[in-house]
Amino acid sequence: MIGAGLRVNELVTMDWPNNVIDNFGTIRIIGKGNKEREVPLNADVASALRDYIEQLRGDGPGPLWHPISKAGQLDAGRRLTPGGVRKMMRFRGCELTEVITPHYLRKTFGTRLLQHGVDIFTAQELLGHASADTTKIYDTRGKERKVEAVNVLVRKTKTL
Questions:
Q1: What's the Rg (C-alpha) of the chain?
Q2: Would you tell me which CATH number, out of the four given (3.40.50.2020, 1.10.443.10, 3.40.50.300, 1.20.1630.10), belongs to the domain 8-158?
Q3: Where are the domains of the chain?
Q4: pLDDT exceeds cutoff 90 at 144
Q5: What angle in degrees, to the nearest 10, is found between the helix axes of 82-92 and 102-115?
Q6: Residue of 59, 62, 65, 60 whose CA lies nearest to 82
Q7: Active site residues
Q8: pLDDT, tens digit, 9 for 90 and up, residues 42-94
């Protein structure tokens, strides 16, 4: 989720192979309001997804994500649920001092996009927000963003 900015419901409703396109380079998401968007995957996420399909899940059609049994086996007869994602995250993060939730990972994705100079409208599209105002909530850059914007303008003006 941190590599694609998905809502937990978007993650668990994905089906194989319908939602994975472009040879693992893009995922097709059905988001809030039944709106469809395509989200490109970086090479690391695409590789991890490919490995999951090849080594664990298998190539048969159906839910992309399955729960893992207490014995550590993939339960291919069931679809992973939002509660199952949260449970796995609690289990995997038990040594962490900070609580990590699915939405925390989504928010981190959005925040990092903005911190690295991605414009707010592209971030809005990737996150599936109906409004840039919602995306602005993820913008934690504060005053330094404004200072940098003014400095960029000064540098560009001096080169004219």
A1: 19
A2: 1.10.443.10
A3: 8-158
A4: no
A5: 80
A6: 65
A7: 7, 32, 103, 106, 129, 138
A8: 999 999 999 999 999 999 999 999 998 888 888 988 999 999 998 888 877 65
Q: Which amino acid is at 121?
A: F
pLDDT tens figures, 120-130 = 999 999 999 99
Query: What is the arithmetic mean of pLDDT over 13-33?
Result: 93
Q: Residue 140 region, left (φ>0) first, then alpha (ψ -120 to 50), else beta? A: alpha
Q: Which residues contact 102 (CB under 8 A, 6 or more apart)?
A: 1, 7, 8, 11, 82, 85, 86, 89
How would you classify the pairing of strands 26-30 and 62-63? unpaired
Tokens of 39: 């989200």
Sign, CA dihedral 78-62-46-5, equals negative
Q: What angle do CA 75, 28, 69 make, to 5 degrees?
A: 10
Cα 115-120-121 angle, rounded to 5 deg: 150
Q: How confident is the model at residue 142 (pLDDT cuts 50, 70, 90)?
A: confident
